[in-house]
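INPUT
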Amino acid sequence: MSSPSRETASTFELTYFDLQGFGAPIRTIFAINGTKVTNIVPADWAAEKPLTPFGVMPLLKETSVDGKSTIHLAESDAIDRYLVKKFGMAGDNVFEENIINSYVSNTNSLQLRIFMKYYTVRDPALKTAFVEDILGYIDIWIKSNERQLVANGSNGHYVGNKLTIADVKAAYMVDLIRSLKEDAITEESTPALLKVKTTVDSIPSLVAWRATEEHEAYSEHNFSLFGYK
Amino acid sequence: MASLPTPTQASTEVLSQATKSNDSTFKILYFGLHGLAELTRTILAYAGAKTEELTVDWPNQKDQTPFKCLPVVYEVTSDGTVLELAESQAIERYLATKFHLFGKNEYEHHKVEQFLTSTDTTLQAFSTKVIRADADKRVEEANKFYTEVLPKFIEVHEAHLKKNGSNGHYVGDSTTLADIKTTLLINRVLFLRPKGANEVPFSAEKTPLLWKARETVDSHPTLAAWKKSQRYQELDASTKTMFKWE
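OUTPUT
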């Protein structure tokens, strides 16, 4: 492929476990764009592991329309970025890209903190203590993000007037925050963030993906292992 | 009170035009240690860019920053436009794009990203397990890190460097951010070896291609000059003091 990243008629195969985990953002990007991706769960991961670039999943294979060339992508964050650019969700100019990157980076930090200190922790006392601790960070996140969204015109987007990956990541964070404190995100207190969430959630192809049995199976498995969907 | 540059209010199209300026001055707002600004300062030094360190007055500046955390970098272009850059990884990507450190095409760009996040995982592990360990556990944690975390990184990355032709680069035949970030990892682990810990498993003999990548980056003239500067020595010293490192 001479410029593989710009081809959108390729076929895609995602190799990952049958749960949400690090596969979810990638599947969400495909769903939003209305592009099919075949999800492959390795039959024998232990055997395949040493043959992969970094010994970890997810992995993405892109095959050109004529079937003649394939490229192999690895590392979840790198795959996300590649797809986001390909599908025009990375901003329309260098500065929009930078703004998006900074909000995504900031959101990822908070997400990581929540996963590492809450969802992967078993001790209920530690979990409760953590929620107390994290509310301060959540408050700062809400303020920074509401501010940008209002500056951009409270139109449900972080930059311009179209969907970018910043919107998608923020919508996901809204769910995560609500799983810790239901009333942290409301029409009264955080209207701009709520609008981002409802805008993302109403994308028809995303709604369709989330209604599938496959998606439901990944969520259930995720929930049984980690306690969140 | 140390005041901050005022970001120019303009459309992102106008700001993106300004980002093309190649004689900007980069004003860095960060505490006086390496920390989260180390890679940013390294990229700027590598590119030979003009930089200035702003005085930190955190209680008074916090609310003026986009995320209430540091680093923040202000790019001031020759016509006076001020571009506010925040979040260390977003800053690094922005600078690497500007200074052509992401390879020659989109697929090389993706490959660079693969190595960046893979290296980042190891950097995060070092930070969490060793730098932030209690002082009396540091030697033990460092030794564990050398035997449990580094070997996988070394095996995987030596293989990739070999696959690219053992030329000292991860991708193609010129320096990318992947080379620079791995160099940072190696140097950080070597520099922050706790007194009494085992030898760090990075060396010319044990990890020849990683060592070559590091030497290629570190011998770049403007970067070498930065590392010899007084400011750099100060950052070294206060990095150790900050973490009460022996």
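end of record. Strands of chain B lie at 25-29, 50-53, 72-76, 82-86.
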